[in-house]
Design goal:
Blueprint: H1 2-23, H2 31-34, E1 38-41, E2 47-51, E3 58-59, H3 69-79, H4 91-102, H5 113-121, H6 129-145, H7 148-158, E4 165-166, H8 168-176, H9 185-194, H10 210-226, H11 232-235, H12 256-269, H13 275-280, E5 283-287, H14 291-304, E6 320-327, E7 334-338, H15 363-372, E8 388-390, E9 417-419, H16 420-426, H17 429-439, H18 441-451, H19 475-486, E10 490-491, E11 497-502, E12 506-507, E13 516-517, H20 521-537, E14 551-556, E15 562-568, E16 573-580, H21 605-617, E17 729-735, E18 742-745
Helix pairs in contact: 3-9, 3-10, 5-6, 5-7, 9-10, 14-21, 15-17, 15-18, 15-20, 16-20, 17-18, 18-19
Domain Penicillin-binding protein transpeptidase: 327-582
Biased composition (Low complexity): 644-653, 662-683, 702-719
Domain Glycosyl transferase family: 54-224
């Protein structure tokens, strides 16, 4: 009877086993187990950041080959020393654990590594009979379908080590700032000890538990010796490796967040990865950012700008923001980027935002377009660096049928007859507005697009004012455009990524890079020759501190809300912008008085930052000269063109009141710091702070005769009168920056947009 009962019991157990084995299948992985962080790396392979914001999980999956043997052995010594020789389950260990738990000797799992992996990857952490039963059967099936190496690899990638680190790779970074492949026996043993009690054994967070953690660490090392994975001589005298302080809160601080977000945007915009893929995580993204150049950029901004701010005593200094981007003109790779003082303090990236006018940094695109298109002046003279234009202040442009436009020069100065080179040195608005008409504003716009400025850039409109830079391209966009000039007119879309892998092995294909001749070499090189003059004796002499041949152009936005320098050497094209923004309202703010200076000039801090950065970034690179092929006749003098000889006298800046245009409305504020208006078919030219079509305040006198002087006072929104022939029209390119609406002018026909100066 007893024997029969026993046999029945055994048969019942066997039957239950086979029923359970047949009913329980290996399920898909749980959602948490597959989520990973994305890791962003500098070009040299060192880490920029681990981004867990998409996946909400700090994990980076690695192959077993990417985990040091010491780390593998340490985990086995801690959790399952007979893993490679035992079955998926260990009944004796399970019974022993149950007995010890029941008799008060401590809670023990008794689970093999295979069972723990099944719990981590396929099931969950709940303590229920159903979950334990599923774990039992899945482990047996898994042991038949996967190799021991595959199971150990999965276990190492799914185990939790504390500090929000899932997997051995994330743990190695979180505790020791190194890769899993570089873990030595001492550090590996500590990480293995953490699996048993991740939070309690973190000796930094819980120093009171250090003795228990060290005891567990010793247990692991002794196990490694016992199994022959570590020699006794190595073990003897081994010191406990204190982990580093936890730094989770600073993962995106400094420049890291700016760089990561810029790269993410690049990946999505170029259809390399989409947001869902990034959310799933597991990508290891090697960027083009060079660590030494990145550090040099940050130091230059700190030295030349941030360290000089006095936010406590000078309110304007609290408005100061900066953005910068640096591109290798030969490869199109973005090698450095400055987004702001700290991503966690100033979220908006100063290098990629597109809401500040570029000012006179746009003027070189006008000249390049003139050469590219073989353009001539209104009287038929070919446009070259020596072509003479009438630089009279408020001179109405000739040959434009869209309404009168008479931009002011900085400080309302008149120059009379002046060569294009000199007009570039001094950023004479009257000359460049006329040149834009001579070339054709639509052609100028197309040239800018060909050079690298996005076609959908706000306020990039085909009007004469396009020459003065009302467009709000980003610093990165402008760096791409200037890199094309530096590369003799050859344009390749910038790139920020060198390589992408997923799960340690799968390499993601990157788009093929193509280079096109955006403008002729002579157009680009002749523009470069002129921009060299700006550095040698124009508004950007501070760029000479770079200590090597350089070309560039300064610029300032309306009302001095931003100051720019865009420049390049044969090896590096870099654009820097200093911008004004209220830290509370985010409204664009004038920078008059910032750093204790009357105005923020493009030739001041932006050029100084550029010079220090370029000097340091290229300090180990031999200085090279520009190899230029100029347009035919570029070095030949030309006779003066038609103009008003009496206009050669220079008018002092700061005069109040503009010249009245045919539509009956005064012309706008000075250039190089103030927008020069929104001309319309009815003849309205608004700008600065004109109210109701009445008085316009003139330019502010500053120390630099070739940087933008802005309008003083008032509201940047300007309302013009109604011109002849129809109702009001809103200026297409005349949006005033600073967070205010666009300038509105009167008259029929298309508005011609605002423009800015140097």
């Amino acid at each position: 009877m007893v024997l029969g009962s026993f046999v029945f019991f055994v048969l019942a157990i066997v039957a239950l086993f086979f029923v359970g084995y047949s009913l329980v299948n290996i399920p898909p992985a749980n959602a948490l187990a597959t989520k990973q962080a994305n890791v962003y790396l500098y070009a040299d392979g060192s880490q920029i950041a681990r981004d867990t914001r998409d996946s909400q999980v700090n994990r980076e999956k690695v192959t077993l080959a990417e985990v040091s043997k010491d780390a593998q052995h340490a985990v086995l010594a801690a959790e399952d020393r007979d893993f490679y020789t035992e079955s998926a389950i260990d009944p004796k260990a399970m019974l022993r654990a149950a007995w010890n738990t029941a008799t008060g000797k401590g809670k023990q799992s008794g689970s093999t590594i295979t069972q723990q992996y099944v719990k981590n990857y396929y099931l969950g952490q709940e303590q229920t009979v159903t979950r334990k039963a599923k774990e039992f059967f899945i482990s047996i099936k898994l042991d038949r379908n996967k190799s021991k190496d595959e199971i150990l690899e999965g276990y190492l990638n799914t185990s939790y080590f504390g500090r929000n680190a899932y997997g051995i790779q994330a743990a190695a970074q979180a505790y020791y700032g190194r890769e899993a492949k570089d873990l030595d026996p001492a550090r590996a043993a500590y990480l293995a000890a953490l699996v048993n009690a991740p939070s309690e054994y973190d000796v930094v967070a819980h120093p009171e538990n250090k003795s228990a953690a060290v005891a567990r660490w010793n247990y692991v090392l002794d196990g490694m010796v016992k199994k022959g994975w570590l020699s006794q001589s190595q073990r003897t005298g081994m010191k406990f490796p204190m982990p580093k302080e936890q730094t989770l809160s600073t993962g995106m601080s400094g420049q890291r967040g700016y760089l990561v977000d810029a790269v993410k945007h690049y990946l999505i915009a170029h259809h390399i990865l989409d947001s869902d893929q990034l959310e799933a995580g597991g990508y290891r993204i090697t960027t083009t950012i060079q660590r030494n150049k990145q550090n040099a950029f940050v130091k230059a901004v700190n030295d030349q700008l941030v360290s000089k701010l006095d936010k406590k005593n000078n309110k304007v200094d609290s408005y100061v923001r900066a953005g910068g981007a640096s591109v290798d003109p030969k490869t199109g790779q973005v090698v450095a980027m400055y987004g702001g003082i700290d991503y966690v303090k100033q979220y908006t990236n100063g290098a990629t935002r597109g809401d500040f006018q570029v000012g006179s940094t746009f003027k070189p695109f006008v000249f390049a377009s003139a050469v590219q298109n073989g353009s001539t002046t209104q009287d038929g003279r070919r446009i070259t660096p020596n072509t003479q234009y009438d630089g009279t202040n408020e001179r109405p442009v000739q040959g434009w049928n869209g309404g009168s436009y008479a931009p002011q020069n900085e400080d309302q100065r008149s120059y009379g007859q002046i060569t294009v080179t000199k007009a570039t040195d001094l950023s004479v608005n009257a000359v460049y507005a006329q040149m834009a008409v001579d070339v054709g504003p639509a052609k100028v716009k197309q040239t800018a697009i060909d050079l690298g400025i996005p076609s959908d850039t706000p306020d990039l409109q085909p009007y004469p004012s396009i020459a003065l830079g009302p467009a709000t391209a980003s610093v990165l966009d402008m760096a791409e455009g200037y890199a094309t000039l530096a590369n003799h007119g050859r344009h390749g879309t910038y790139t920020m990524v060198k390589k992408i892998t997923r799960n340690g092995t799968d390499e993601i294909k990157l788009p093929d890079t193509s280079v096109e001749q955006a403008v002729s070499r002579s157009a680009a090189d002749t523009t470069t020759a002129m921009l060299k003059s700006v550095v040698q004796g124009g508004t950007a002499t501070a760029a000479q501190a770079a200590g090597r041949p350089a070309a560039g152009k300064t610029g300032t936005a309306e009302n001095d809300t931003a100051a720019w320098f865009a420049g390049y050497t044969p090896d590096l094209a870099t654009v820097v912008s200093v911008m004004g923004q209220d830290p509370v309202t985010a409204k664009h703010m004038s920078l008059y008085g910032a750093l204790g200076q009357p105005r923020m000039n493009g030739g001041g801090p932006p050029t100084q930052i550029w010079a220090q950065y370029t000097h340091d970034a290229l300090k180990n690179t031999p200085a090279s000269s520009f190899d230029l092929q100029l347009q035919e006749g570029a070095d030949q003098p030309q006779p003066p063109g038609p103009g008003d000889p009496s206009a050669s006298a220079t008018t002092d800046g700061g005069t109040t009141g503009g010249a009245t245009q045919p539509g009956g409305t005064p012309s706008g504020t000075p250039t190089d710091g103030g927008t020069t208006g929104t001309p319309t078919d009815g003849g309205t030219t608004t700008g600065g702070d004109t109210t109701g079509g009445g008085t316009t305040t003139g330019g502010t006198t500053g120390p630099d005769p070739a940087t933008v002087g802005g309008a003083t006072g008032g509201d940047p929104t300007t309302t013009g009168g109604t011109g002849a022939g129809g109702g009001p029209a809103t200026g297409g390119g005349g949006a005033a920056t600073g967070g205010d609406p666009a300038t509105t002018g009167g008259g029929a026909g298309a508005a011609t947009g605002g423009g800015t100066g140097t």
